[in-house]
Amino acid sequence: MKTSDFADLKMFITGPTMIRKEVRQAGALPEFGHRDKENDKRCVSIFRNLRKIAGVPEGYEVFLINGSGSTCMEASIRSLVRDDETVLNISVGAFGDLYHNISKNNGKQAEMLRFDNGSAVELCRVREALERVRPAVVTVTHNETSTGVLNNITAVCELARKHGALPLVDGVSIFGGMDLDLPQARPAMYCTATQKCLALPAGFGIGFVAKEALDKAETVPVRGHTSDIIRQVGKARSLQSLTTPNTTLLNQMAVQLDYIVNEEGIENRFARHAKMQAMVENWVRKQDGFELFAQEGYRSPVMTAVRVPEGISFAVLKDVLKERMRERGYLFDPGYGKLNKEMEAAGERPIFRIGHMGDITPDMVEEYLEELGEELGRL
């Protein structure tokens, strides 16, 4: 197979995301020994810049775990939920459901509090569930990638703590796209990954862990090996990973995180995402019959879910519109497949998604929306 066989499409999906030329080139930097002093040349800045982007307060540890955001989420369950405890998984979509499935598949006693697709967490219902279930641990999704809902994790974490539960947050698709407000939210553990708003290849989960989580993990007798956050943090304190890392990705991380912090600037990056959110939402409002799907006031700054008019099916989005946009040089996101199939079975109109995260720029969004609008007009 030749490299020319692979299309270099402009990606407007919700991850993996577009990777800058400089980051691609960093993938050709020399390999190195991950237990050698060469490791420090990359990882001193990587760990420092991850903390800056997250805005974590003192007392939090950060580690890299080989795998993905889901791997980090599984580590949080394996390490922080004892078998005699219950975990309450709060879900507003497919990835909140995933946290519940991870809990169940690891043999934990798990209850799910499910909100309608497109709706954000309602604190009154969370309070009722906390009083009924009395969980030791609560999980919540910060940015629900399947629906474009952004939850108020500060309020959820505060409520969980009032009921004696450790709050764990899935922030896979929002880290690097907005101010996380972690000093106020104070989750026991915040899980994220490389391939979304950081605009890097997939390959690492990233965990931010409070001291109370490490203390709790000491009471969990079976944490696994790679899923043991105590082992992970132990190696991270030496700026290393527990198991052999993807050193190509570490080269790329060192370059990209330095760019985010010291060239673009963290606040400028957050402002750019907010600008693109406004651009996309204003565009949707001008499209006849199309609607913003996520609840007003709880919409993601890094991706937008759009409900289509009557007469446009998921099959049309996936088999027609996606391929037409491919011909124009774009990778279009026809929506989360399982969710759209469930919605259509229930008589609801499907949604498509527009990813405006990572290193996508407002000019790129403007161009994409113009061409997407032309194709929508042909349907």
Structure, explained:
This protein is of the alpha/beta class and 379 residues long. It folds into two domains: 3-15 and 266-378, Aspartate Aminotransferase, domain 1; 21-262, Type I PLP-dependent aspartate aminotransferase-like (Major domain) (Aspartate Aminotransferase, domain 2, 3-Layer(aba) Sandwich). The protein has 14 helices and 14 strands. It has helices spanning 21-26, 37-54, 69-80, 94-105, 123-133, 153-162, 182-185, 211-217, 229-236, 247-264, 266-286, 314-327, 337-345, 362-378; strands at residues 10-11, 60-66, 86-91, 109-114, 137-141, 143-144, 149-150, 166-170, 189-193, 204-210, 291-292, 303-307, 330-331, 351-355. It has a seven-stranded mixed beta sheet with strand order 2-10-9-8-5-3-4, sandwiched between helices. Strands 11-12-14 form a three-stranded antiparallel beta sheet, with helices on one face. Strands 1-13 form a two-stranded parallel ribbon. Strand 3 (86-91), helix 4 (94-105) and strand 4 (109-114) form a beta-alpha-beta unit. Helix 2 (37-54) packs across helix 10 (247-264). The longest helix has 21 residues, at 266-286. The protein starts with 9 loop residues before the first strand and ends with a helix. The model has no long low-confidence stretch (mean pLDDT 97).
